[in-house]
Amino acid sequence: MCGIAGFIGSGNREVLEKMTRALAHRGPDAEGFFIEEKKGIHFGHRRLSILDLAQGAQPMATLDGELIIIFNGEIYNHLELRAELLAKGYHFQTDHSDTEVLLHAYRQWGEKMLTRLNGMWAFAIYDKRQDLIFLARDRFGKKPLYYFRSEKGETVFAFASQLSALSHHPQVPRNESILALKKYFAYGYIPAPHSPIKGIFKLPGGHYGKWDLKTKQWSIKRYWEYRLEPMQANLPADQGKAWAEELLYLLDRAVKRRLISDVPLGIFLSGGIDSSAVAALAAQHLPAGALKTFSIGFTDPSFDERSYARQMAIHLACDHHEEIVELDKALQYLPNLLRELDEPIADSSLLPTWLLSRFARRHVTVALGGDGGDELFAGYDPFQALKAAELYSKTIPRVLHPALTFLAAQLPVSHHNISFDFKIKRFLRGIAFPPSLWMPVWMGPLELSEINDYFGDQNDPEEIYSEAIEAWESAGPGANLVDRALQFFTRLYLQDDILAKVDRTSMLPSLEVRSPFLDSEVVDFARRLPHTVKLRGGVTKWILKKALEPLLPHDIIYRKKKGFGMPIGAWFQQGAITPAVPKTASAHYFFQQRLKFHQLGKSDERLFLWAQHVLNFWQNK
Q1: Both 218 and 283 in a single domain?
Q2: Which domain holds residue 245?
Q3: pLDDT surpasses 70 at 613
Q4: Pair 409, 516 in one domain
Q5: For residue 538, how many other CB atoms are within 10 A of its CB?
């Protein structure tokens, strides 16, 4: 895993070095630069050495010097692609570098190479033959890539793995994007292509871009999108079993691919179904006792899963490592972590994910995790709420909704993890909106009227929630609610919350995290499965659970899901965290009211207060 940075146009080596060294935590092992003064091309790279430690240095060039690459990521099918390219007559300088495979794959197939790759990536290639810079990001955007284009004075095009690196270029803007911040409070994260800085954008997952060195024009094109194309929904008695067996086979292949490493490797193990599946499959490919697993626990049992992780570790005979963190001590780490965030992400699991990554990094350089399982197979609580929401919308008169919301507000506030009153209040909050907005309103810090109050203006819901609406409608006419929700989670929440969170928190301690559930073969199979085998009879992830029955203990597979969170509600109520007051008048008043209600126990404002707290640190770095 690495960090990349570069620019074309005004600037010098000193600027490039500052940009690149801002990414040192992403690549602590080495740095490299490529500069072509005549055309103003500057490439910088920081390396976390994982594969071909001796020969994989970057920037890397073809023997004829016509192609130069800087690459952040891992290509898990690089050995198969190498064999195919060798058969076509290509010659390799390295022993088993996936970076060199990308160079030759680009020469052989051009932009079509991207559909052949199985992995995670963000890279830039300088193509001297076509006089262009080619940038690409993996299907789900696991690896970050920001860019900006300036036409003030000499035209500059710059890009980097993080905003902190881009900020070292003198032409990069500094002004906040108000629209992006409104979206941040609507979702709890900033969806691509937006960034918190006006004029800086994220290259969305599944896209590539070209910078033409002659015309100085930038163009973007989508090469892949997650689209549900379900097979026959009527499920014969034996079809479910066949699909479960195929899913297990594909997951096993995905895990095996991700065990290839020239450095120590382990597994994040929470004791949930996804991480347990990854650990169990990995254990089948390693000698007994060789698999290292890692978990963290907290003193508050509402947020602790150590017993389940330990059960799985014993079941698999793993070399298990666990760390117990006092919640008060965890709280002390928070300011430094939030200062290091490149952009605000209002996901309270930032802290435990970082703690786990930091702990694992003491022993290994690579870890496999279970990210993607909930999004692909309908594992979240909102999926179970869809049927009730549909029934409520059809049977409860709209005039009664305010009264029911008022009654729910009288329920005592609990700050336990995903408490009953929190679910009820969130359900009623979202049901007041059209179905296309249920998911973001259920999960986001603020809903539309609150965003209006906070910013002191009126906002168009189709602009604020444009990404959610697009994802909802992308399921196609006549699609059911479950498929529409799946589109939201896989196309939006997964990329801009879950994967962004894991990337930032794991790369701070220089740990590479791999996600077998997002293997291209697994994803392609999952998108063709009907929703009836994902959410079946009220059971979430039904087909995945059936697939894992031969592999995992029954009580692990069917235990109640527990989120990877922190007691932020209690922290705000007790004064353990006190967010800074927003500066604008409207936001100031709104914040003071919500903080007061929360501290008095009149309402649960944990999501908004946390989002504000995270934003404060980002704004005042």
Answers
A1: no
A2: 239-377+503-557
A3: yes
A4: no
A5: 9
Q: At which of 159, 188, 222 does a domain end?
A: 222
Q: Specify whether 280 is located in the same domain as 199.
A: no
Active site residue 2: yes
Looking at residue 60, the DSSP 8-state letter turns out to be E
Q: Mark 462-477 as b/e (b = at least 16 C-beta within 10 Å).
A: eebbebbbbbbebbee
In whole angstroms, what is the distance from residue 307 CA to residue 318 CA? 15
pLDDT in tens, 230-239: 887 666 667 7
Mean pLDDT of 386-408: 80
Mean pLDDT (the chain) is: 92
Work out whether strand 119-127 and strand 67-75 pair parallel, antiparallel, or are unpaired: antiparallel
Per-residue pLDDT reduced to its tens digit, 357-393: 999 999 999 999 999 999 999 999 999 999 988 888 8
| Beta-bridge partner residues of 323 | 296
pLDDT of the residue at 580: 87
Are 402 and 447 in a shared domain? yes
Tokens 């999952």, located at residue: 526
Q: Which residue has the tokens 């195929």?
A: 246
- In 175-300, which ranges are E strands? 200-202, 207-212, 217-222, 265-268, 292-298
Is the CB of residue 262 less than 8 Å from the CB of residue 270? Answer: no
**Residue in 288, 251, 296, 313 with CA at minimum distance from that of residue 553:** 313
Tell me whether residue 299 is in a domain. yes
65 and 104 Cβ atoms separated by less than 8 Å: no
pTM greater than 0.85: yes
Amino acid at 442: W
Residues 6+ apart with CB under 8 A from 207: 136, 137, 220, 221, 222, 223
Catalytic residue among 1, 2, 267, 548: 2
pLDDT tens profile 19-29: 999 999 999 99
Cβ proximity of 468 and 438 under 8 Å: no
